[in-house]
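Page 42, continued from yesterday. The earlier attempt failed because a stray header line got pasted into the input along with the sequence. Redoing it now with the clean sequence only.
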Amino acid sequence: MKVATVAESKVSLEAVHIEDIRLASSKMTGADRRVFQAEMTLKYCGGNPRRAEDVFGWSRQTVQLGLHEKRTGIVCLGLHAFRCGAKSWEEKHPEVAQALWELAESHAQQDPTFRTTLSFTRLTAEEAIKQLRARGFADDVLPSRSGMSKVLNRNGYRLRPVLKAKPQKKSPKPTPSSPISGSMTEIAKARRSCA
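This time it went through. Structure tokens are written below.
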């Protein structure tokens, strides 16, 4: 087995353990990952981010940030966490969304199996846009056809066509030429004569 040795702290890790630590780190995100990487750097690399980069293959800037967060107790927010999160269409246009929900609810139908709480609707995205235009909403506030599909699906309205109930097929009636029907007829005649 390949053994990686960390010189100053006299800690040796087998390659399997290094892979396990890398895997555990890859399953985490954000501040949790940085805290974990800082802990492993302190434990196995003597708090040296460059050595952690060599041993574990992590970014030394991320490890350094994790060490600073651990030392100060202040968790840093990245610009992505600060500025991300575009509002959904429903949040941007609540009046149009309310009209869409009323429209979708009038066309909604419960799942025939009652196994889910989803409503199935016969309303297509194109028809929803058409009916919202008829109610007087401008095109600039209405989403595209694919966007409307996503909005409806995101809010629990599945855009699948619901099949109407199909009539049962007629079962085949026994014919006189059938061997089963002949024996059944003889049995029925025999019972009448006994009675």
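Notes: The two ends are 92 Å apart (CA to CA).
Reminder to self: strip header lines before submitting.
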